[in-house]
Specification:
21 helices; Cellulose_deg_GH3; 4 domains; Immunoglobulin-like; alpha/beta; 6-stranded mixed β-sheet; Glycoside hydrolase family 3 domain protein; TIM Barrel; Ig-like_fold; about 25% helix; Rossmann fold; hydrolase
Length: about 850
């Protein structure tokens, strides 16, 4: 094997870039925090606080599974307040909570170690699946004793409710998870009685049922902080103390109770059949359901309070071709605090031929920081092609004849008509081929046609010119790939067995030329002598999830430096400590302290694509620093239900908001030459329970308008370098084997030109079929084992896999490798 190459720093010192990225993470976290209630308690006007609740000291900075991080350090809420010179007067309860937490952690470890005691190196992925299946449920903590209430002049109390979730399991409608625990309710009641001012903080990647708080007087403020990353505690303190005026907005509708969500009682483990998820709500997801069916939410989509007040009005509306622009004036009419406001534009469609939701988000803009009395002008714009409805009967994207009302506001329920767009005739936008036929007979939620349109009233009228639109049609052919000059040169030296090798990842334990300790996967290093290096692929959505301190021996073996990290210190790895741990003098030390960014849902709550683009650029810079070529993110699945265990790493219930924010982070990453993103999970990965075998069953319209719309948008606007197919089936067919999805939709219609890879072990015995991957349009099988290569070779021999399909996949993979920073000079 050729001499290996390591890009990562060999010094443990905090770099200038790391410090800059921490500052950006703090800014993003503060701007993502949503103020749900405030009677004047916030910002705090004191430097003394009684602090309680699970998230005070054990603040959850991100989710579990592939979304986890191994950063240098993170700041909890207690530390953040203390860093801001706030005195915490409730240390006794916090110390007792920490002791309870340690006991629960020890009990979990003992339980897991018993389950994995016989696992060996070949079972490593299975071992970590077992670990993930027994999540550390953060303790609620015990009831606050009267003696743990400070007896001094402390007037402000804060209670932090915390929840954890992650890959492989969904949340549950039970106390201590989606519901508040009796202990939490009792503690909040006690604090409301004992303190003049009480703030409740929700530290969770998704919503919690807050209905018990309705019965408690004297709750002065509620903050949804989500999962705020490495600088989370400092950011929360910034908002609590008024150094930052909250400007975050909800990206999901918060219901009054769980059963208010459509299809609530059949979701995931609540249903009778974990192998089939029937999307009976159809297109009516999130606010589309609540607003259309007049179900009052607790907090609407797009909602968020501020320490100041804004006034806004539309000053002009313009249509040119298919482009619509709305100019809006926003003024800070408060007298004390500066702040930012997000203005949202919604559209109400005719819904005459094809039933439609009452409103749909079509544009938004966020102001800069406005001082009291200061005014800003925003321009909100969208393309009418992007608001077309899908006529399933005709397989046609359509702007139907009728009135389209534009509504402006600061949440989905605080909006008013500002203009009407007049469409004089049906406009055919895009003709497509049918895909993914339903295999189960179930009825989707419906509304009467023409009954959901919002009348415009006395507002300006704009005429849409049908001649400005040109019908888009597609050629549905097996996809092809054009090799670059470098790829062509390499291809001439490869046989068919080599091409098959390229289509299978490098596995978990091979030696590699390009080394980045702790990455989730690599392309093969078996073809180095033929001039093909491997590239490295890293989780996760909150940043680069790699090992922080390792050592590379002179012969390229990776070992832990000084100790095994807690996240790896399990089972057979723990028993191999003498072999797995090295001292600095035994090779080349490697230090990789990557930034743990606020969770994706927090990033979306900023409603600031420019800020999210900065995150992407920062991640791209970190990728170059440590030799990562593909980031296994962003994940852009829709929040179909609040119980999904991975909602924290997805953006929103709304496809448009998801599209804009994901495109921003992709553009940021790929602004750096030689690195790229992997958009995932394509598609309908909307539950974690039995995700390897369940089938998402839905109509073609629902599939196109809700669950693949963001993928279409990001391909069109940001062209990611890779897409990851999901674990699940769609209408009975595994996505990795689904020609309709991967070729007809993703490549023929969306125009995607990069590589498609499987999720890890999504193709395996009893799951997606290895031999159907390439023929369907799935190029790379990950993480890659000999059995996959053998299966592909057997398929070629039998004729079940066209040789052309293998060559096409190999070309795409080679193009990616030699366009990457680590492959350019190989």
């Amino acid at each position: 094997m050729k001499k290996f190459k390591v890009y990562s720093p060999d010094s443990p010192e905090e770099t200038k870039m790391e410090k800059q990225h921490r500052a950006l993470a703090r800014k993003v976290a503060a701007e993502s925090i949503v103020l749900l209630k405030n009677t004047g308690v916030l910002p705090l006007k004191t430097q003394k606080v009684a602090l309680y609740g699970a998230g005070a000291r054990m603040t959850i900075r991100g989710g579990a599974g592939s979304g986890d991080m191994r950063e240098r350090y993170s700041v909890n809420i207690e530390e953040g307040l203390q860093n801001a010179n706030v005195t915490i007067t409730s240390k006794a309860w916090l110390d007792r909570f920490q002791s309870d937490y340690q006991k629960q952690s020890d009990d979990r470890r003992n339980l897991i170690e018993e389950k994995i005691k016989d696992y060996t190196q070949k079972d490593v992925l299975k071992m970590f699946e077992v670990i993930a299946a027994v999540p550390l449920k953060y303790p609620i903590g015990s009831k606050i004793a009267l003696e743990e209430i400070p007896q001094d002049d402390t007037q402000n109390a804060i209670y932090v409710v915390a929840r954890q979730a992650g890959e492989g399991h969904d949340r549950h409608v039970e106390k201590g998870d989606f519901l508040l625990d009796d202990v939490e309710v009792a503690n909040i009641k006690l604090l409301a009685q004992k303190f003049k001012n009480l703030t409740v903080i929700v530290n969770c990647g998704s919503m919690i049922d807050l209905s018990p708080l309705d019965q408690i007087d004297n709750i002065g403020a509620i903050l949804f902080v989500g999962q705020v990353g490495t600088e989370g505690g400092n950011a929360v303190a910034d908002v609590l103390l008024g150094k930052v005026t909250p400007s975050g907005k909800l990206v999901d509708t918060w219901a009054k109770k769980y059963t208010d969500f459509p299809a609530a009682e059949s979701y995931s483990y609540l249903g009778s059949d974990l192998t089939n998820a029937d999307y009976t709500e159809g297109i009516y997801v999130g606010y589309r359901y609540f607003d259309t069916f007049n179900v009052a939410p607790r907090y609407p989509f797009g909602f968020g309070l501020s320490y100041t007040t804004f006034d806004f009005k539309s000053t002009s509306q313009l249509i040119k071709g298919s482009s619509v622009k709305v100019k809006t004036q926003v003024k800070n009419i408060g007298d004390t605090y500066s702040g930012k406001e997000t203005i949202q534009l919604y559209i109400s469609k005719p819904g005459i031929q094809v039933q439609s939701e009452k409103i749909a988000l079509c544009a938004f803009e966020k102001t800069a920081n406005l001082k009291p009395g200061e005014t800003a002008e925003l321009t909100l714009s969208f393309d009418l092609n992007d608001v077309a409805v899908f006529n399933e009967e005709k397989a046609l994207w359509l702007l139907e004849k009728g009135d389209y009302t534009l509504l402006l506001g600061d949440s989905s329920q605080n909006i008013s008509p500002i203009a009407v767009l007049k469409v004089s005739q049906d406009i055919d936008v895009e003709k497509v081929a049918h895909i993914c036929p339903k295999t189960r007979d179930f009825k989707e939620l419906e509304v009467a046609k023409g009954k959901t349109h919002v009348a415009a009233g006395d507002v300006p009228s704009l005429t849409v010119d049908p001649a400005a639109f040109k019908l888009i049609e597609h050629s549905y052919q097996p996809s092809t790939a054009e090799p670059t000059a470098k790829t062509t040169e390499i291809l001439n030296n490869l046989n068919i067995e080599d091409l098959v090798t390229l289509c299978v990842g490098g596995g978990q334990f091979d030696k590699y030329y390009n080394l980045t300790p702790g990455v989730a996967g690599n392309t093969t290093a078996a073809l180095l002598e033929k001039g093909i290096p491997n590239i490295n692929l890293s989780d996760g959505p909150a940043g680069l999830n790699v090992l922080t301190e390792t050592l590379i021996t002179p012969d390229g073996i990776q070992k832990f430096l000084r100790k095994i990290p807690d996240s790896n210190n399990w089972g057979f790895i723990r028993k191999m400590a003498d072999y797995a741990i090295a001292k600095p003098q035994e090779g080349r030390p490697v230090y990789q302290f990557m930034t743990a960014w606020p969770a994706v849902v927090n990033q979306a709550q900023t409603w600031d694509p420019d800020l999210v683009k900065q995150i992407g650029s920062a991640i791209g810079a970190e990728m170059l620093e440590i030799g990562v070529s593909l980031w296994l993110a962003p994940a852009i699945n829709i929040h179909r239900n609040p119980l999904c265990g991975r909602n924290f790493e997805y953006y929103s219930e709304d496809p448009y908001l998801t599209s804009v924010m994901a495109s921003a982070v992709i553009e940021g990453v790929q602004s750096h030459q030689g690195v790229g993103v992997t958009v995932k999970h394509f598609c309908c990965n909307n539950q974690e329970e039995n995700r390897d075998h369940m089938s998402a069953n839905l109509s073609e319209r629902t599939l196109r308008e809700i669950y693949t719309k963001a993928f279409k948008f990001v391909v069109k606007h940001a062209q990611p370098k890779a897409v990851m197919s999901s674990y699940n089936k769609v209408n009975g067919v595994y996505t990795a084997n689904n020609y309709d999805l991967l070729t007809k939709l993703l490549r023929n219609e969306f125009g995607f030109t990069g590589i498609v890879m499987t999720d890890w072990n999504a193709a395996a015995e009893g799951k997606a079929d290895y031999q159907k991957c390439q023929a369907s349009g799935n190029d790379l099988i990950m993480p890659g084992y000999p059995v996959a290569r053998e299966s592909l070779l057997a398929g070629l021999k039998k004729g079940t896999i066209p040789e052309k399909a293998i060559k096409t996949s190999a070309i795409r993979i080679l193009n990616l490798i030699f366009s990457s920073a680590v492959g350019e000079d190989f």
